[in-house]
Amino acid sequence: xxxxxxxxxxxxxxxxxAWLSARLPAAADGPAPVGGWTGPATRAWLAELxxxxxxxxxxxxxxxxxxxxxxxxxxxxxxxxxxxxxEHGGVIGLGMVGPTIIAVGTAGQKARYLPGILSGQxxxxxxxxxxxxxxxxxxxxxxxxxxxxxxxxxxxxVWSSYAHLADRCLLLxxxxxxxxxxxxxxxxxxxxxxxxVTVRPLRRLPGDADFGEIVLDxxxxxxxxxxxxxxAGWSVAMTTLAHERGTFGFALTARLESQLRRLxxxxxxxxxxxxxxxxxxxxxxxxxxxxxRWTSRRALSRLGxxxxxxxxxxxxxxxxxxxxxxxxxxxxxVLGPDAALDGDAAYWSGFWQYHxxxxxxxxxxxxxxxxxxxxxxxxxxxxxxxx
Amino acid sequence: MDFSFTEEQTALRDVxxxxxxxxxxPSWRELHDLGWLDKDLDAVDxxxxxxEAGRAHAxxxxxxxxxxxxxxxxxxxxxxxxxxTLAWREPEPGPSRLDGPLDALACRAxxxxxxxxxxxxxxxxxxxATGIEVVLVLARGADGPGLYRLPLAALxxxxxxxxxxxxxxxxxxxxxAGVPAEPxxxxxxxxxxxxxxxxxxxxxxxCEAVGLARAALDSAVAHARSRxxxxxxxxxxxxxxxxxxxxxxxxxxxxxxxYVAAWRLNDTGDEDQTATAVAAAxxxxxxxxxxxxxxxxxxxxxxxxxxxxxATHRYRRARWISCFDGTTDEHRGALGxxxxxxxx
Lengths: 387, 344
Fold this sequence. Notes:
Helices cover 46% and strands 14% of the residues of chain A. Chain A is α+β, with helices and mostly antiparallel strands and 387 residues long. The relative contact order of chain A is 0.11.
């Protein structure tokens, strides 16, 4: 056990920090811009990352990555979060779809999609949830029927982050009978510009529209765009979600740290830093932050290199969502009556209002807290199934 | 960065777990033979043993000795030969915490001309357990505050005992009244030593709390699997299972912090960083232990509320730990001050 970073890690972090701070103004304890990245900004940023060698850090070198251990990706996520560059439409391709293509894709799919994901030319979104298939993902109804050399796809996908910016969608569709549940599913790499595809933004509780719905009306998807095998969609989707939960903990924790720095700055600006009640509650959030950070690192040490994380890692997501909801609500309490303002009229142009409202999705996205608790109860504590 | 235990550490832990699971707890002599008193155990090794002691609800003389006497014995070049505790607290307005204030110290060590050093004054709330033979007494001597080694047998009569919320951990009250004692460590370094003892004691108690919480969770989970009501095992009800998952999450987070704090103890470099790590571990581990024990009682229902049930004694131990050298709120307040006032 040695909790110090290696010389190589220290050097990587220092170089990355210098590179990032030359490109993005340090937002360490000031407000970061609220709301989404545009498509061109996302692509330009990915191209810059790629040019500097910071895209696909953990991807094998033969697919254009750097073949580094996950700990370097964790450092990247921490440093990106410090300067507010952690969350953008490119992360779905780089962090989830790309690794899934590497794991189960054909040689042709790898050659066709991986370079574009790395360089920002191809932006992916994910089409899993449906109006009638939320937590119960095996209830997916979007139908894909083989017709000659293509699947004809009809259905309705919702809550798809960055769908309005994306070129392609990793879509989970039903190729088996209606009651085949998780056995009759197939993953498809769908071109969102194809005839029959409609993408509509969905405006959310904080007022932004960083996710959308995708309506598919007899969209023809070539057979060559099946990812994995026909009928194996469930395990492909689980591979994708495992990658989401793997290093995501580091991004979440790093963002929590940035937000705590901003909360401390806000408390000083509001003249509340001496309030003992506030000190107590800030200490609680700080304990959560340290606990999440070290638990992510402990899980990483147990994980070794690039395996799927074990169910234990769900606790980081579960507890991060609570901590972030508590932190942002605390920030609004620090603002006092001014928390009722928003937009330009508000402190930091409504930064805290946006993030507090946005935080309510934290316990929904990427697995609701109820589902995560069910998973932990069954797979880690070995309690009898609830359903 | 490597947050994993060595093979030697996992072996030490596994042997401890197996040994402590047997009905008769190890004697002091056996602890010695097992290597649990070796001077080359580092803080992470000791932390893992403290966690196992917590899991097994082991007798307390080993933990008290490791938590409160090891640093002083090590600094004085002495082996941990006998079960030993520490007397630092005095009645108002004397020092209450391990880290002082030392200028409030009223107990005195006086050397008679050509004779022995004798101690005077009252020490209170001295952690005690069956088997403890020696007390290290914090007192003011000719060259300032220091630690004096006092065999309990040297006291006239039995010392007064105060009942503890943990029945295995009563408290002693000592009226020193001129009892002879041996100077162990005196002089200017005493303040730094007492701060180091405080960090070590809080960390090992956090580890013990984590182990205790794990035992409470294991026991509650086993019961939730086997106990049926309304035709189903109660663990199939989410009201039961989700609470146990929350306990599990609390424990895993607290364990990470407790191991980090132990690792920081090995490195005497940055005292502020150590203080932060120790405070975070203390807060998280205490809250996790109380929550785990409360969930255990709740899962067992009225059966868990009986004096004979192990849940009762785990919960009492968690309560004892939770107000050791500062309430959890006091630790939280100090940490909040550090976060708000210092750059981090």
